[in-house]
């Protein structure tokens, strides 16, 4: 396939470029879709031949600036907490657009960009999502946890009720596209789609914190299929995370948790 | 288990707190370790009973500030590219410490913080890593790709040679802790360890970009076990990603790729 100009052509080229190191690894370990060698190879061939390389230039900070910037960014993100008590105060739509754009700058396996961010503002739709999530949660609590546990939770006011699904001005449901389609209609494996979309969500969380918005990272129990149908997403998309987004309530509380110190998470050699 | 004071006790409480919404989802879909119900329940019970909640307060920006901050952050991260041509110029260690600290602020399933960041600066160790990665890559290229493909790659100067593994001042190897140990020595499932560590890597990529450092997100082919042994990581840790970190070379190039526009990644309802 020869490269021509025009946006569509760009997109083809792009979505088929292999970020080499991504494409190879043992998919047994971690990712959710087996590598089909034929496809893999075919895919790569089309690609490398099509991709032009261009010079890369970037901003350069002084060492002092780098140290200061990295320290300031750490302090900003270290203030992030998962907040389950969100107010219904509206949030500017433009901010939501910007944080999703930011998440979209994430790297992805073979540059497939295998993510769909469904942003739900409609109150009726939010309530339907809440009903689906709470119904599954209630079943889960009662079936799997037993009475004693349920009572403990009641005592702690922690149960299957997820009020934030109604109150948060936005719910962001993040879907991973587990495969795509080649121009010839053949299935195109999305290597590392789950790792890629999770990395994009990490960047999204950083963008939310930078904007002064809060959320709780959640993976609703067994709701993926129902929510996918409710939100009319195609069969190649699977729900990965649900993020309610807004401002904390005035009386919001968080668990008294600490984070591991650097020496517990970093090994220097 | 009653809560007492002291850092160690804090840690126990903390590592056992369930971020509720994380703990439930269908592990069939995506994560790499089956939920063992007994353990799950036991774990949760210990936790909720121990966790105190505290009031949460946070900074509040004006809407104009939020829009500006979110726009500026998008522009910063949109300049990020995966760079395979890294110079050997040294990078301040303090910046590396700060970006790892920042990654450590990520949320994680049941707040297990199941990540280990191995930072390799030692030239001999970097070279050993390069030898392991390139050996596997060469096998992969020759076995799986066939002569025509290998020749295409030669023509494109893209092959199994990964010079950046020697030249980058630091290699960050990110391991996911697939399980931990309870005080009683029992295995403690780390729910969503791969999603959690990938989210932390997204935050790490944002921190690197903010500091003016570059990398290429890589998952070395079949090298996990060998690299784990080389770096003396325990059996519960699996290599997820390898990030060479440094400054781009003066003559660095990147593939001419574009990113999907907002309307291709966001659905608003």
UniProtKB/TrEMBL annotation, chains A, B:
A GO CC term attached to the entry: plasma membrane
Signal sequence annotation: none
Catalyzed reactions: L-tyrosine + chloride + NADP(+) = 3-chloro-L-tyrosine + NADPH; 3-iodo-L-tyrosine + iodide + NADP(+) = 3,5-diiodo-L-tyrosine + NADPH + H(+); iodide + L-tyrosine + NADP(+) = 3-iodo-L-tyrosine + NADPH; bromide + L-tyrosine + NADP(+) = 3-bromo-L-tyrosine + NADPH
Cofactor(s) required for function per UniProt: FMN
All copies of domain Nitroreductase, residue ranges: 78-247
CDD domains xref list: iodotyrosine_dehalogenase
InterPro entries noted in UniProt: Nitroreductase, Nitroreductase-like, Nitroreductase/BluB
EC number: 1.21.1.1
Disordered as annotated region, ranges: 1-43
Single GO biological process annotation from the record: tyrosine metabolic process
Composition bias, Basic and acidic residues: 1-12, 22-34
Alphabetized UniProt keyword annotations: Flavoprotein, FMN, Oxidoreductase
Alphabetized Pfam families for the sequence: Nitroreductase
Record-stated family: Belongs to the nitroreductase family.
Protein name: iodotyrosine deiodinase
């Amino acid at each position: 396939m020869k490269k021509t100009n025009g946006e569509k052509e760009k997109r083809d080229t792009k979505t088929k470029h292999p970020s080499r190191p991504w494409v190879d690894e043992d998919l047994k370990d971690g990712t959710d879709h087996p590598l089909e060698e034929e496809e893999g190879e075919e895919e790569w061939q089309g690609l490398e031949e099509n991709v032009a390389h261009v010079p890369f230039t970037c901003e350069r900070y002084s060492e002092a600036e780098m140290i200061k910037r990295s320290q300031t960014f750490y302090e900003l993100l270290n203030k992030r907490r998962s907040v389950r008590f969100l107010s219904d105060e509206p949030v500017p739509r433009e901010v939501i657009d910007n944080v999703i754009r930011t998440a979209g700058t994430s790297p992805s396996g073979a540059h497939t960009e295998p993510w769909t961010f469904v942003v739900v503002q409609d109150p009726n739709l939010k309530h339907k999502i809440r009903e689906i999530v709470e119904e599954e949660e209630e079943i889960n609590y009662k079936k799997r946890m037993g009475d004693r546990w349920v009572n403990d939770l009641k005592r702690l006011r922690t149960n299957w009720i997820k009020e934030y699904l109604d109150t948060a001005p936005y719910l962001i449901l993040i879907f991973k596209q587990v495969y795509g389609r080649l121009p010839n209609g053949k299935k195109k494996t999305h290597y590392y789609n789950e790792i890629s979309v999770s990395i994009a969500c990490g960047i999204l969380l950083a963008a939310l914190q930078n904007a002064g918005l809060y959320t709780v990272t959640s993976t609703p129990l067994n709701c993926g299929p129902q929510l996918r149908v409710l939100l009319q997403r195609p069969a190649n998309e699977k729900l990965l995370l649900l993020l309610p987004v807004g401002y904390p309530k005035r009386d919001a509380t968080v668990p008294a948790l600490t984070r591991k110190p650097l020496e517990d998470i970093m090994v220097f050699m």
